TrEMBL record:
<feature type="binding site">
    <location>
        <position position="161"/>
    </location>
    <ligand>
        <name>NADP(+)</name>
    </ligand>
</feature>
<comment type="pathway">
    <text>Cofactor biosynthesis; riboflavin biosynthesis; 5-amino-6-(D-ribitylamino)uracil from GTP: step 2/4.</text>
</comment>
<feature type="binding site">
    <location>
        <position position="198"/>
    </location>
    <ligand>
        <name>substrate</name>
    </ligand>
</feature>
<feature type="binding site">
    <location>
        <position position="66"/>
    </location>
    <ligand>
        <name>Zn(2+)</name>
    </ligand>
</feature>
<dbReference type="GO" id="GO:0008835">
    <property type="term" value="F:diaminohydroxyphosphoribosylaminopyrimidine deaminase activity"/>
</dbReference>
<feature type="binding site">
    <location>
        <position position="191"/>
    </location>
    <ligand>
        <name>NADP(+)</name>
    </ligand>
</feature>
<dbReference type="InterPro" id="IPR024072">
    <property type="entry name" value="DHFR-like_dom_sf"/>
</dbReference>
<feature type="binding site">
    <location>
        <position position="175"/>
    </location>
    <ligand>
        <name>substrate</name>
    </ligand>
</feature>
<feature type="binding site">
    <location>
        <position position="187"/>
    </location>
    <ligand>
        <name>NADP(+)</name>
    </ligand>
</feature>
<keyword id="KW-0686">Riboflavin biosynthesis</keyword>
<comment type="similarity">
    <text>In the N-terminal section; belongs to the cytidine and deoxycytidylate deaminase family.</text>
</comment>
<feature type="binding site">
    <location>
        <position position="159"/>
    </location>
    <ligand>
        <name>substrate</name>
    </ligand>
</feature>
<keyword id="KW-0511">Multifunctional enzyme</keyword>
<feature type="binding site">
    <location>
        <position position="145"/>
    </location>
    <ligand>
        <name>NADP(+)</name>
    </ligand>
</feature>
<protein>
    <recommendedName>
        <fullName>Riboflavin biosynthesis protein RibD</fullName>
        <ecNumber>3.5.4.26</ecNumber>
        <ecNumber>1.1.1.193</ecNumber>
    </recommendedName>
</protein>
<feature type="compositionally biased region" description="Basic and acidic residues">
    <location>
        <begin position="230"/>
        <end position="247"/>
    </location>
</feature>
<keyword id="KW-0862">Zinc</keyword>
Amino acid sequence: MRSALRAAGKGLGHVSPNPLVGAALEHPAKSAAHRRFGGPHAERMLLDAIGSEAAGGTVHLTLEPCSHHGKTGPCADLLIEAGVRRVVVATLDPNPSVRGRGVARLRKAGIEVEIGPGAREALALNLPYFQRHLYERAWIELKEAITLDGRVADSGGRSRWITGPEARRIVHRDRARADALVIGAGTLRADDPELTGRDTPGSTTTRIVIDSRLRISPEARVWQAWHADSGGRRPGSEGRPIGRRDTPTVSGNFVRRSDGRWLRRPRLILATVRGVPGGRLERFRERGWEPWLLPARGGHVSLPALARRAAREGLHHLLVEAGPTLAQAWLEADLVDALTLYMAPKVLGGRFGWTGSFQSPLARAPHWESVALDRIGEEGCWRLRRPGVLDRMADDVHRIG
Ligand code: AOF
Ligand code: ZN
């Protein structure tokens, strides 16, 4: 299972909204992975690589094999046809089109199936995917660059830069791995960021700007960068072929090229509330923004509604680069699944703390568990996630079988 888990990581940044999946044959030792969205699943990659050697052998999978006809045929059938004797599965697949049916299919064909080894590791690789299918909302990771005293800007509002170039390079890598980057109108108006992965041109991910009152400019730099990157795609063409038969098909977050490959399609989303003036909205629409008209909570976009909508749209992992107001709102909504803090050994004082005016009594303070604490030169990167989330998901996914 260890080599299957290691192999699974090879798809990082290329398979979402699909999960990272690895497969390994015990003897002779061979492993393979699902490497890109729309491409062959891990089982197919493995079986193609080993031919008839799988017959009578044991295969380890980090996820239950699929049982449905998606972009490829069911992997359970591939294993049955290959004559595999035993399959070890780390965890069931919570996708409603699988949910235990893959394992049932193997067992019905007389294959011995063991479930559980490596479950926590397999879950940890795919938290946003499991969150989406178990709880129907996106995984919210809040990212903050802070000083020792938790400040994100000096009293003049200057925030460039709290951390050094090396930390910012890692942030760009994090951005490329998320399904969407989220900022609020406050940050957009203060910093007017491009939100690109500058080291990896063309790797722009989808951006979501939260603006309940349409205060931002439809031609802010985030739009300019998106527009340049997406070649000014015509809005409203989702799900329909754009142009003739040999031109790409747009579907959700991907574009299918005529050679069958799926390319990521960066979207630019304006999350706002129902009832905003239609005329103002049109100025965004005509430039390619996709408005999401969400219910309001206290005059602001409902964040639970945003997290549900994102999950439904296949945006499972949201990286939120929040200023104090938006960070406070996510904390108050109790939706911060993961926290990534880049910390510079400086002290700024003043009023711009990353949590805004958030307050909690000590006894009920939200808290997270440490996943990694890395040193970046003189700075630090602390990665945290909601405590107990792995155990809860492991229980819940077990129950679906
Ligand atoms: C497997 N092995 O390596 C993966 C699986 O869009 P499709 O057709 O590729 O199907 C995606 C779904 O298939 C995904 O949501 C998940 O349920 C399963 N992923 N299954 O047997 C794999 N990547
Ligand atoms: Zn499959």
